[in-house]
Amino acid sequence: MKLGKSVHKLFYRLIVKLGLFLYKANDMIAVKTLPQFGNDPKNLRIDFPRRIINPERIFLGDNVMFGPGSFLFALTHYPGVSMQNPERKQKQQIFDSKIEIGHRVTATGGLQISSLRKIIIEDDVMFASNVFINDALHGYKNATDPYKYQQLWKIKPIVIKMGSWIGQNVVILPGVTVGELSIVGANSVVTKSVPDKCIAIGSPARVIKKWEESTHCWISASKVNVSERS
Questions:
Q1: Which of 99, 101, 116, 127 is a Cys-bridge partner for 136, taking CB atoms 3.0 to 4.6 Å apart?
Q2: Is residue 45 a contact partner of residue 66, using CB atoms and an 8 Å limit?
């Protein structure tokens, strides 16, 4: 009986050690197999699974860490193979895209950044899970052709400024600037820019609070000057 318990404990310890080894090996492989980006960032980590398109057009700061399921797309043309109409040839769109990510930017996981023109994420931005950022939209000029076969449009740069916090399941659309040290609440769709030091929530997102420097506290949007609202 005692021998059986000893064997069980030994087996359990071996399983734990094997698990730790595989975890560390996965981390090492994730780091060692990163593509060559447009620059040479230090201490970069993007966990598996991940998908990166045209990494030479992506520039990252030091100490950037993205969790699993991250997609970084700097597209140069549309449509790709999966978006081509099998029955007729489509006019190809050409793009000069760029993604710039600052120092110490972190994402829990599921971060999707797709750029046709330019997306800038400044230092110390924090992303929760499943954030989608796209500086273009699929075309919908007509309702006769499938939208995947229509040209991309409404292409406008996106800027997410220093120190901001983007919550769970947020969508950020073309032309938006999220202000410095601002917060976008979970499940929000940001269609208009958010000023500095504001909290915005909803679909479409609207400012509900603003940081008051004189009192060092958040004040209600009802007390915010109309010109300062998103």
A1: 116
A2: yes
Closest CA to 230 of 160, 173, 179: 179
Say yes or no: 81 and 131 in one domain. yes
Give SS3 for 78.
strand
pTM attached to this predicted model: 0.87
Q: Which of 228, 125, 221 is nearest to 181 (CA)?
A: 125
Collapsing DSSP to helix, strand or coil, 129 comes out as coil
Q: CA–CA separation, 229 vs 195, rounded Å?
A: 7
Tell me the pLDDT tens digit for each residue of 113-141.
999 999 999 999 999 999 999 999 999 99
Number of Cβ within a 10 Å radius of residue 79: 17
Domain of residue 3 covers 1-33
The backbone torsions φ and ψ at residue 208, rounded to the nearest 5 degrees and listed phi first, read -110, -20
β-pair partners for 165: 126, 183
pLDDT tens digits, 36-79: 999 999 999 999 999 999 999 999 999 999 999 999 999 999 99
Judgement on whether residues 2 and 72 belong to the same structural domain of the protein: no
Helices (H), ranges, the chain: 2-32
Q: Which two tokens stand for residue 179?
A: 């202000």
Q: Are residues 167 and 120 in the same domain?
A: yes
Smallest CA-to-CA distance from 109 within 96, 121, 83, 127 is with: 127
Residue 3, exposed/middle/buried by CB under 10 A (0-12, 13-18, 19+)?
exposed
Number of folded domains that form the chain: 2
